Amino acid sequence: MQRTRELERHHHPTLLHPPPQSLQLTQSSSSHVIPTIDLSRHRSETIQQIHHASHNWGFFQVIHHDIPISVLDNTISAVQSFKELPVQVKSQHYRREIGSGVSF
To answer: How does pLDDT run across 49-74, given as a tens digit for each residue?
Structure first.
């Protein structure tokens, strides 16, 4: 199990790597594990898992998505850069009007 986790760590951006101690689950904490959606599974099973995780948790982790690590790293970098901008600049992208979509 530990070897599998070590191999999986190489496929995720470093920002998403949890500290090693957080990988140790105890019996009491196992019910609080973030749902993981495996996109390599059958479509109907994946849809059910997404529905369940969304309904019960509101979020989930996706694995086997085939998104290149460079795209993930660039996305995280862009989000970090945006968060570091002054509020005046970020507020130009914030909209609350119905139908305008959310951009911040």
So the answer is: 999 999 999 989 999 999 999 999 99
* pTM listed for this prediction: 0.48
Measured CA to CA, the distance from residue 87 to residue 104 in angstroms comes to 11
Q: How far apart (Å, rounded) are the C-alpha atoms in residues 8 and 78?
A: 24
Q: Give residues with Cβ within 8 angstroms of 17, minimum separation 6.
A: 9
Nearest CA to 8 out of 51, 69, 50, 52 is that of 69
Where do the domains of the chain lie? Answer: 29-66, 67-104
* C-alpha gyration radius of the chain: 17
pLDDT band at 11 (very low <50, low <70, confident <90, very high): low
For residue 20, list its beta bridge partners.
Answer: none
